[in-house]
Amino acid sequence: KGNPVFPVSEPEKFLTPKAIERKKQQQVKIDQSDLPISPDYFNQLKNAGGKPVSYSKWFKTIVI
What we know:
By secondary structure, the chain is of the alpha+beta class. It is 28% helix and 9% strand. A two-stranded antiparallel ribbon has the order 1-2. A hairpin with a 4-residue loop joins strand 1 and strand 2. The longest helix is centred in the first third of the chain and has 9 residues, at 17-25. It is elongated. 0% of the residues are buried.
């Protein structure tokens, strides 16, 4: 959602070392589904009058 701030090629910027190691062990590639919600997207919602109450990293959702 929004412009990606974190490049998939640099997973250490958005995943924990433990998560990266687990993906390596399970031979799972890091892809766009691993990216967090973009801070720009949060700002767009706020600028449109939305008031984020909570969010889910797992489901990539924001509750307004």
